[in-house]
Design a protein that fits this description.
The protein has 428 residues and is α/β, with parallel strands linked by helices. It has helices at residues 2-14, 73-86, 99-116, 151-154, 158-168, 185-188, 230-238, 246-260, 286-303, 314-324, 329-351, 355-369, 414-418; strands spanning 53-59, 89-95, 119-125, 128-131, 134-137, 156-157, 172-178, 208-212, 268-272. Helix 3 packs parallel to helix 5 and helix 9 runs antiparallel to helix 10.
Length: 428
């Protein structure tokens, strides 16, 4: 007799449980789950992200010598300047400059750094050449360059930029040289011997990073047929990824360029920088981080069978999440999983005729399905978010889908199905 009564109660209380498990968000087939969560609090060094940022970007394509002409440097400079502005840099963008124009632009840039301090970035795309361990950037008016001894007088050395940064006593300096091109034919004719392709390694000044599109002595691809060189294309991509340090950015860029060029181009960078620098820092809202941590705790409770009944349970934990974020999908799905687990436990206990266990599981299910609140006997309607019933009176027939037991319109509790204080028809 006790078992029969329990079966009747079971039909009532189990009907309140939503037994369809929430499916996890779908991912691209074959992809592994990746944690892209953003750190809640930035490291102390991230304070540097709020300092003033200045950049000088130069692209030289329209060289006066026909065999010097390049396709992409101006595109690279234009596109990189746009990205840097989005990252908070005040950008001086100059293209197709002669020697005096380059020096003037560098002087103006150095003065800005001196006046403001903070972060300085210099980028040059175009022809570059090394001689006796010194790197030279070629201006567009190099038609009169006929001998190696002329390089200090008719080009602009990378040291000119570094000296300006050093004099400014800047806090962070970034120098990017996408100038490791093959020597033009007219230079190869007089540049044999001690003139090698690519650039040589510069000794970084204090608080600086020097990045090369190709490692010292290597040659960089210009990206013929594409808008940007491989190096700048990947640089623009990775510097916009939140919370990557400058080391991580240049490492990612190097890996991508090496892969794209089948190992023919190997970017490198060298530094004397003792604080992390982030092109883009994006701090997560503290409350969001707390919710994420709390959800992990909830899942641990669930996996260990601590479903409901006290403060250290999955049910109470998910309630705390919903107190902070009423529409949190993971918490709502977690509550459904708890209900489903109780349904399975009750069924299993009844099948084995374990009445005491079934009653205990039903008590847990009642707590979860009614939101932890017992309804008084004079309240026939379970109304509110926890019941999933938006009707403040008895719901019309056909308002709710069938549950796991193929019963319809069973949102609420047993009282609602048998009688209702709101319906005079039921009192006759």
């Amino acid at each position: 007799m006790r078992l029969k009564s329990l079966l009747l109660i079971t039909l009532g209380l189990l009907a309140t449980a939503c037994t369809n498990e929430e499916k996890p968000a779908s991912t691209t087939k074959g992809d592994k789950a990746t944690d892209f969560s953003i750190p809640a609090a930035p490291p102390v060094e991230a304070q540097m992200q709020h300092k003033k940022r200045f950049a000088l970007v130069i692209g030289n394509s329209a060289y006066q010598k026909a065999d010097f002409i390049l396709t992409n440097p101006v595109n690279d400079a234009t596109d990189l300047a746009k990205v840097l502005r989005q990252l908070g840099f005040e950008v001086i963008e100059q293209n197709n400059l002669g020697k005096l124009q380059m020096q003037t632009a560098i002087d103006q840039f150095s003065q800005k750094l001196y006046d403001n301090k903070g972060v300085g970035l210099f980028d040059f795309s175009g022809h570059g050449i090394q001689h006796n361990g010194i790197n030279y950037m070629l201006p567009v008016d190099t038609e009169s360059l006929t001998a190696r001894w002329q390089l200090p007088h008719k080009t602009v050395s990378a040291d000119y930029v570094l000296d300006g940064m050093k004099a400014a006593n800047n806090q962070i300096n970034l120098v990017i040289l996408d100038a490791c091109r093959n020597l033009p034919a007219s230079l190869k004719s007089w540049g044999k011997g001690d003139m090698m392709p690519g650039l040589s390694m510069e000794v970084p000044i204090h608080c600086s990073v020097i990045a090369y599109a190709a490692a010292p002595g290597g040659v960089a691809a210009s990206g013929v047929g594409y808008r940007n060189s491989p190096y700048v294309k990947h640089l623009m991509k990775w510097m916009q990824v939140p919370n990557l340090s400058v080391d991580e950015v240049f490492t990612k860029v190097g890996e991508a360029v090496k892969r794209e060029t089948y190992g023919n181009q190997l970017p490198g960078y060298y530094k004397q920088l003792y604080k992390p620098f982030y092109f883009k820092w994006q701090a997560a809202a503290p409350e969001k981080s707390k919710v994420t941590q709390l959800l992990r705790v909830c899942q641990t409770h669930f996996e260990n069978g601590r479903l409901s009944g006290g403060s250290g349970t999955a049910f109470r934990c998910y309630q705390k999440v919903l107190d902070k974020d009423q529409t949190n999908a993971q918490a709502l799905a977690g509550l459904k999983k708890i209900e489903k687990r109780y349904v399975d436990l009750v069924r299993g206990a009844l099948k084995k005729k374990q009445v005491d266990s079934a009653e205990r599981y039903l008590a847990g299910l009642r707590t979860v399905s009614l939101g932890g609140a017992m309804l008084p006997s004079n309240k026939a309607n379970c109304y509110g978010d926890y019941c999933g019933d938006s009707f403040d009176r008895t719901a019309p027939v056909g308002s709710f889908a069938e549950n796991a037991f193929k019963l319809y319109d069973t949102v609420g509790n047993v009282w609602e199905w048998t009688c209702s204080e709101y319906e005079n028809e039921w009192r006759k």
